[in-house]
């Protein structure tokens, strides 16, 4: 569904070509300083404009409609709204009958019928992550000294990002990428096994980011090739610091005081400038599909701050749950 969280509860709304998109946050403690300006730095990191991102430039200005008074949170639901001002829905006119391979057009129409808004990807659009980034900034404030930092480590399997993007643009194609996220300065003891383990909470939210295809924590899939004596992280001090960090700062679903580190695989954008085959679902004939519109050639370029946001949201909820348990 469109909500997540046990205490720090988020609920997303909006469509890419509708009036706007946004987020409601319930359960945020009162007294946290919060203005629209505070949200801008993270929002600007998600913005398009760089080479390889969509030419659809939006202002992405947040309007806090509720939940703050004199620059501080009140404890009431926080509603943050962004207006859509730069839409070109005619680019999508053919997609009702000829769904794009790899996008949500086909499944959305199957599940929700012809009333589904398919323009700009509708509610499935990456634009929905705008509200998530805003909520991430609020969550970072709840986490205080915890430092969360995500960056791109690979694009299209390469570390020369510019060359990889250039190549994809020349081919009118798209490429994926890997985003690595690290969280430091965490207390020991966050995480609510079994079902709200730290890995479960973060993964659940990471897979809400459209175009996510994989996640691995610490040594990840390589752990399956290691021996126990290689993989175990020797505990070196009473504060839990370990010699290595194959476990990514998490044991038994609970933070152990070391760095949380994980990598996220983002797929290549499905809307490409190369002709593709798809079925016309009105005529049941195969057709050549040429996609119009303004698309990100490499979505991964815009994803690091979104991954930071979902990590902060998961950890803030776990922090508030831990506090409630101890009260
Ligand atoms: C920030 C961001 C920007 C995106 N931009 C595009 C885009 O321009 N064109 C596109 O086809 N998909 C784009 N996507 C991905 C689609 O929204 C996504 O592929 C689609 O909703 C289907 O979901 P799935 O890929 O997770 O199956 C973007 C995703 C994010 C997070
Ligand atoms: C608008 C944003 O990204 C959009 C995400 C998106 C998609 O299919 O996810 C498709 C494109 O929409 P449009 O065809 O309207 O240009 C992107 O521009 C945004 O991220 O703010």
TrEMBL record:
<comment type="function">
    <text>This reaction introduces a second double bond into the aromatic ring system.</text>
</comment>
<dbReference type="InterPro" id="IPR020541">
    <property type="entry name" value="Chorismate_synthase_CS"/>
</dbReference>
<keyword id="KW-0456">Lyase</keyword>
<keyword id="KW-0028">Amino-acid biosynthesis</keyword>
<dbReference type="InterPro" id="IPR035904">
    <property type="entry name" value="Chorismate_synth_AroC_sf"/>
</dbReference>
<keyword id="KW-0288">FMN</keyword>
<keyword id="KW-0057">Aromatic amino acid biosynthesis</keyword>
<comment type="subunit">
    <text>Homotetramer.</text>
</comment>
<feature type="binding site">
    <location>
        <position position="294"/>
    </location>
    <ligand>
        <name>FMN</name>
    </ligand>
</feature>
<feature type="binding site">
    <location>
        <begin position="267"/>
        <end position="271"/>
    </location>
    <ligand>
        <name>FMN</name>
    </ligand>
</feature>
<keyword id="KW-0274">FAD</keyword>
<keyword id="KW-0285">Flavoprotein</keyword>
<protein>
    <recommendedName>
        <fullName>Chorismate synthase</fullName>
        <ecNumber>4.2.3.5</ecNumber>
    </recommendedName>
</protein>
<feature type="binding site">
    <location>
        <position position="51"/>
    </location>
    <ligand>
        <name>NADP(+)</name>
    </ligand>
</feature>
<feature type="binding site">
    <location>
        <position position="252"/>
    </location>
    <ligand>
        <name>FMN</name>
    </ligand>
</feature>
<feature type="binding site">
    <location>
        <begin position="123"/>
        <end position="125"/>
    </location>
    <ligand>
        <name>FMN</name>
    </ligand>
</feature>
<dbReference type="InterPro" id="IPR000453">
    <property type="entry name" value="Chorismate_synth"/>
</dbReference>
<feature type="binding site">
    <location>
        <position position="46"/>
    </location>
    <ligand>
        <name>NADP(+)</name>
    </ligand>
</feature>
<keyword id="KW-0521">NADP</keyword>
<comment type="similarity">
    <text>Belongs to the chorismate synthase family.</text>
</comment>
<comment type="pathway">
    <text>Metabolic intermediate biosynthesis; chorismate biosynthesis; chorismate from D-erythrose 4-phosphate and phosphoenolpyruvate: step 7/7.</text>
</comment>
<dbReference type="Pfam" id="PF01264">
    <property type="entry name" value="Chorismate_synt"/>
</dbReference>
